[in-house]
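lol forgot to send this yesterday, sorry. struct tokens for the thing we talked abt
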């Protein structure tokens, strides 16, 4: 699990997604997101919930900006608790902005408790209870319907190539050959399927892998070299754009 507590005034996130289930509480101001389906605004007192892989931006939707606390829940943890609470590990969330005052207070307390190392039993119990409540009250089982994706095998094959060779240079011609589709058609279909064109998807994939290594305690310069960035400065720019913080702030 990862945690973020932050306040932004004029900063805006580029289009990105998270590998984990992201759940947060908006404590002040309002956050806006552009995502498939349009613009969503989450004011103070509400929850923001983003499914793994859900492409979005993030920006201040209030003159004062926004302050929030975010949880990024490990996929295996979510599946385990989902099976316990809902009988299946295959879940998704239909709503990005969630009004639930009781759950808001519960999650904010759980997040604050993680900042104190004195009582791990209490902090972990609050955390697991909070995630269980999120699942029980707002999750849906099965997979979200995606009519536009039906029969789209080509983009999936191109995506797999990016995951297999994420540290290497990849050309559009290679993606086109893997997908069995013309180049222009592939780029259009890939964007429709995954919310980003292939080059932006690969950059996001590298950024998420870099984040994992930083959270494991590796130094930024080593992480930049391992994950295919030009240098540490390049990694710093990407972390700031996608995560709102520099690599030095992403730590165990």
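and heres what i got for the seq, position by position
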């Amino acid at each position: 699990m990862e945690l973020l507590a932050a306040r932004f005034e004029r900063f805006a996130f580029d289009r990105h997604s998270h590998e984990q289930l992201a759940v947060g509480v908006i404590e002040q101001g309002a956050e806006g997101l552009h995502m498939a389906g349009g613009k969503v605004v989450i004011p103070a007192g509400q929850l923001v919930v983003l499914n793994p892989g859900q492409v979005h931006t993030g920006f201040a939707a209030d003159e004062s900006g926004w302050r929030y606390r975010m949880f990024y829940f490990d996929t295996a943890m979510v599946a385990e608790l989902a099976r316990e609470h809902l009988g299946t590990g295959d879940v998704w969330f239909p709503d990005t902005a969630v009004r639930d005052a009781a759950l808001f207070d519960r999650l904010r307390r759980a997040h604050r408790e993680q900042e104190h190392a004195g009582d791990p039993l209490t902090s972990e119990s609050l955390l697991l209870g909070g995630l269980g409540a999120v699942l029980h009250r707002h999750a849906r089982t099965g997979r979200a319907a995606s009519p536009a994706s039906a029969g789209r095998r080509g983009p999936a094959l191109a995506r797999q190539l990016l995951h297999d060779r994420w540290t290497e240079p990849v050309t559009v011609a290679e993606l086109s050959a893997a997908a069995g589709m013309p180049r222009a058609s592939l780029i259009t279909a890939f964007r429709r399927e995954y919310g980003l064109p292939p080059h932006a998807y690969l950059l996001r994939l590298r950024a998420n892998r870099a984040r994992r290594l930083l959270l494991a305690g590796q130094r930024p310069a080593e992480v930049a070299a391992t994950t295919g960035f030009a240098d540490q400065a390049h990694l710093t720019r990407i972390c700031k754009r996608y995560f709102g913080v520099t690599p030095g702030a992403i730590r165990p």
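The two ends are 10 Å apart (CA to CA). anyway ping me if u want another try
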